[in-house]
Automatic annotation (TrEMBL):
The keyword DNA-binding does not apply. SUPFAM superfamilies: Clavaminate synthase-like. It holds the Pfam family DIOX_N. Residues 1-30 are annotated as: Disordered. This is Fe2OG dioxygenase domain-containing protein. Belongs to the iron/ascorbate-dependent oxidoreductase family. The gene is LOC112286232. Keywords: Iron, Metal-binding, Oxidoreductase. PROSITE patterns: FE2OG_OXY.
Amino acid sequence: MAFEAPQSLNRSTQLMVPRDSPRHEVSGTPRASRGLFNRWACGREFRVDSLSISQQNLLVNDGPTSVDFVRHDEFLKDDEIPVVDMALFEGDADTSKKSVEQMVNACEEWGYFYLVNHGVELELMEKVETQAYEFFQLSTAEKEKHASHYSLLEKVKRWSEGIILKPAETNLDDYDNQLSPPENNHEFSTVVKEYDDVMKKLAKRIVKLLVVGLGVKAWRFDEFLEGVEATLRWNYQPPCPRPENAMGLSPHTDPYLITLQHDSGIGGLQIYRKGEWLGIPPRADALLVNIGDVFEILTNGKFQSPSHRTVVNKVEGRLSVAHCLAPAKMVTLIPPPELLRSAPNQYKARTYAEYMGARKRQESSNSLEFMKLPTSV
């Protein structure tokens, strides 16, 4: 399917993305892009009618550059995010054990790792990306029909739009009617449901492997995985005229157990590590896995829920597709006994719903301090 920019726009002002825009190659890693999104993004005209007033000001006004600004194509130099090979879990007992230990170490030291040979079909990943592209190509008026799920980030310096889908709750038929061709008017819902099923199974398997790797009986986490809810978060960041004055997604941690994501092969995701922001190179052959707040709480701080953000660039749009796994709302977040023998619980015992409520009341979603007990702060 070819994605072309619309020939006529509601406003005369538009940002044009050159078709011959340069690509940044990541040395030593597989080619970052699978190509589909780049063909679409490089022909895209960004509609100014979808910008907030504060975003439009970036088109005409200079502002201060953030002191911690890191370009979208500046990547890790001295450190490398761990790479976990899912295929090795199917090997002999010793190989499997070492692979689990490697994954546990990655969660303790980084909170992030690449997952290769993950078993998710490339065709399925491209299908769900196609649906995301189609959605973000709609007019703002069409997208805002899903106001409870869609958001154009209107705070100063935010340069992105996003949609949140919960396959178990969202009426996917509404999207079918907007996006699917008449001859196949259930394409959107079919793809999203299949993708959710595959990713949910993979995420639950990763969680169980990590739990066992910590020396905890797998059944201890059954209550946290029973009735899990999946959230799909799609974000699109169009090219920005002044990337040093803007932000795609502000620094935050994830309010989930675990997140699995892939993107359009354009750099921009950055994690906060050892006092600085580090760019993560995109990899076409891998899913990027990160630990969320819930897993940090349930491991009593052994796993790290890392702060991360995204930055924008002048030339290429960036799409990210994330599948996030969360426990049922009324499950109480308490680490299993095995993880409380060496140290007392650091976190307040709250249901997931109570945690989410408390998080929303915070000025920032970039810390778990509000969940820590006084003796652990």
